[in-house]
Design a protein that fits this description.
By secondary structure, the chain is of the alpha/beta class. The protein has 2 domains: 189 residues, Rossmann fold (3-Layer(aba) Sandwich); 105 residues, Rossmann fold, CATH 3.40.50.1100. The chain starts with 7 loop residues before the first strand and ends in a 9-residue tail after the last helix.
Length: 315
């Protein structure tokens, strides 16, 4: 399971030409069929341990469409290690394709109600789980740990040497923060990193990134910022404007999107370009963090919302 040079897809359109921008997409969605996108890099230190012969038992947390749990389940199958997921929801909920995949790869599923799931980061709750599952290792929700930051910092080393290895602006969606922290840690000095939170986090998003950098042993290099206006109302929210953006974007560019992370990223950054917030002459590199498996649970909502929006898009 070796990493390789990461593909970059340039985006050609009158929209970027009018703004004087060159734009491209770093295609992390093409890293691996199942360990997709940023999840490959978040799990990279773990994968190296497993390749060296370690066989820990692993548990983690997520929702019924979690990209992290999907990737972790496949890693468990690939290396023959036990995996357990504490999933937000109830057993009587409709089975999702993600849960079916995870179970088929050997992951055990334990559902947690809203109150218990809200305790997933509490030391007391984690102590209870450690006693109930002695010897198991805990990976945080979304896989955002200090190791994940180190793994994601290596994304830069896999960019082929050239203009896209040192973009003026690199933009990435932000969920639990590990990927963005790693990109900040490894960035070239002249590159500005822009994070687009997909949750309504406010100042908590910045604190989370700073905490992850510190936990991984990195000094904050500066040269990064957040666009907190791109969440579309919160995690997994799908306004009609976003559904329309996805379809219009995919008709124009050869890059598939999903509505939770990547669509919000492209919409938010393109709005910045449209408003003149990105200087003409800039090279903008979008990070496609994968997660396309999760679109299976959103396609019906996209189709229903699509016709409710009328108006131009920043494309």
């Amino acid at each position: 399971m070796n990493s390789r040079a990461l593909p970059v897809t340039e985006l050609e359109s009158p929209f970027y030409r009018r703004a004087g921008i060159r734009a491209a997409v770093l295609r992390l969605d093409q890293t691996h069929p199942q360990i997709s996108g940023n999840k490959w890099f978040k799990l990279l230190p773990l994968i190296r341990r497993l390749e060296a012969g370690a066989r820990p038992r692993l548990f983690s947390f997520g929702g019924v469409w979690s990209n992290h749990l999907h990737a972790l389940a496949f890693v468990g199958k690939r290396f023959g290690v036990e995996t357990l997921a504490f999933v937000r929801g109830h057993p009587e909920q409709t089975e999702t394709a993600m849960l079916r995949d995870a179970r088929s790869w050997g992951m055990k599923i334990h559902f947690l109600g809203r109150e218990d799931y809200a305790r997933r980061s509490d030391a007391e709750f984690l102590d209870e789980l450690a006693k109930a599952y002695p010897g198991w290792e805990c990976l945080p929700e979304g896989g955002s740990s200090a190791d994940a930051v180190v793994g994601c910092s290596e994304i830069w080393s896999l960019l082929e040497e050239g203009e896209w290895s040192r973009p003026d602006l690199l933009a990435c969606a932000l969920g639990t923060g590990g990927t963005l922290a790693g990109l900040i840690a490894g960035k070239p000095a002249a590159t500005t990193v822009l994070g687009v939170p997909v949750l309504k986090l406010g100042s908590e998003a910045e604190r989370s990134v700073c905490s992850l950098l510190e936990a991984a042993g990195y000094a904050d290099p500066g040269g990064w910022m957040l666009d907190t206006d791109g969440s579309c109302g919160g995690y997994a929210r799908l306004p009609a404007s976003l559904a329309h953006f996805i379809c219009a974007f995919e008709q124009r560019y050869p890059v598939p999107l999903e509505p939770v992370y990547t669509a919000k990223l492209f919409q938010a950054v393109n709005r910045r370009i449209q408003s003149g917030s990105v200087a003409p002459g800039s090279r903008v590199l979008f990070v496609h963090t994968g997660g396309l498996q999760g679109r299976r649970g959103m396609q019906t909502r996209i189709d229903r919302a699509l016709s409710a929006f009328q108006g131009p898009q920043p494309l």
